[in-house]
Amino acid sequence: MSSGKQPRTLSHGSHWSAIMQTQPERSQFALQTSPMANNGHRFLLAAADLQAQAFKAMMRYQIETHSFLKHRCEQNVKLADDLVAGNEFNDAFDVLITFFQNATSDYVTEAGRVASIGSKLVSETARRVRKGADTTIEDLAASTVG
């Protein structure tokens, strides 16, 4: 039931190995890489760096927020203890006034910390973006000259 055709086998000196080793000629329509394409990897690295910075910023805010809330919860527990320990109405009133004064001071201080963190993060991000832009501009200038 054979059709008479033998399967082709590849040998070291065969016609098939010569075909496999030749490379096609470059087409006249092949895309030329632009200086911008050469810096594409730099753009991707810069984007990843910005994402990492955003993640770190978010984590700093979370750490600060959790630290502040822990402190405020401890103060709330202390308030309850102080209210129960007081025997007179005036003692309770003084405890509440002191609690609200401290809480107001804590919230104002925390707002300053958050603003400071935000300012540092914006400054750091701007510095990194500027450095990346300067490097890219220098590379583009070097690639157009050379």
Beta-strand content:
under 5%
Q: Helix amount, in percent?
A: over 70%
What separation lies between the terminal Cα atoms? 68 Å
Sketch the topology as an H/E string, one letter per element: HHHH
Describe the structure in your own words.
- It is a single chain.
- The chain is mainly alpha-helical and 146 residues long.
- Helices cover 78% and strands 0% of the residues.
- The longest helix is centred in the C-terminal third of the chain and has 57 residues, at 89-145.
For this entry, give a set of tags:
146 residues
In brief:
With about 150 residues, the chain is mainly alpha-helical. It contains four helices and no strands.
How are the elements arranged and paired?
Layout: H1 15-21, H2 35-38, H3 40-85, H4 89-145
Helix pairs in contact: 3-4
